[in-house]
Fold this sequence. Notes:
By secondary structure, the chain is of the alpha/beta class. It folds into two domains: 5-56 and 155-327, Rossmann fold, CATH 3.40.50; 58-149, Rossmann fold (3-Layer(aba) Sandwich), CATH 3.40.50.1100. 45% of the residues lie in helices and 14% in strands. It has 14 helices and ten strands. Strands 1-2-10-7-8-9 form a six-stranded mixed sheet, with helices on both faces.
Amino acid sequence: MLTESHRMTTLDDIQAAAAVLKPIITQTPTLPAERLSQDVGGHIFYKAENTQRAGSFKIRGAYNTINSLSPEEKSRGVIAHSAGNHAQGVALAAQLHGIKATIVMPEFAPLAKVTATKRMGAEVVLYGASFDDAGAYARQLQAENGATYVHAFDDPRVVAGQGTLGLELVPFLPDQGGTVIVPIGGGGMMAGIALALRALKPSIRLIGVQAAGCPSIAMSQAAGHPVTVPHASTICDGIAVKRPGSLTLPIITELVDAVVTVDDDATARAIVHVLQHSRLLVEGAGAVGVAALLEGIIPVRPAEPTIVVLGGGNIDGNFLARIIEQVLVKQGRYLRLRTSVP
């Protein structure tokens, strides 16, 4: 059961965050996914957070957190670690508040995410092979420079900010039933949406999706406490979090109906499916919910709406080209021939 400490984020907090964010963020569209609905036999919709400012949902939690800081905390600047999307959310939020931001990113973070973060005025430090390696170094830097830490997910203010996304889904859900499918990395978005929708739509079915190459929530739920995945290997860099939050894990365990995983091949097919049939660009971390539906991992309830959150669209163009080619080759739709003329 959730303890009182895990209830630090309330529906009131989420609604207060919505008021803070209203003039800042885009209320992203909820769009009918007509081809996916035909393919899986349901009424599927996309919550297109890939069209959000900074390219993902992360601006919600980052801005809500930075907005709550005291003048003294803001004067010291902020620091965060990120695989890319939180980096851009913090960079933009810091820019809007006129304060310094330092972001520690893994050495192999996608170039597009590194460049976009720098463009928003943040100082970027590349360190380590994973999100968690970057986090350890960011904490070291914080101890040295005294900057205020903005965590990617394990902070009640971040959870409240991400929970505003759940409020935007309410008008599209029936009084009874319905399904919402959410990508999970560290669990901030899933926890926030779960807190909002369990309060307002108690009968909703909530399903989280992780990359099979980094199933930290599933492993932690089996262990009964947060555990660290030994090695993260996935194209879904935005959710490749090796250890879930101590705040977010109990919320997800209590309020979310199931957490499933999808492999990278399924995610690649989902990226191409969304691009081709819905004309929307999503990254791997944003496409895992679509992958779970296409693979039949999540049973569809034909009479009820299903909303899939497309968490972000920050994907490198060269990487996207390789994904498209890989998928088309495996589908027998693309053939490259080489010959030599004597």
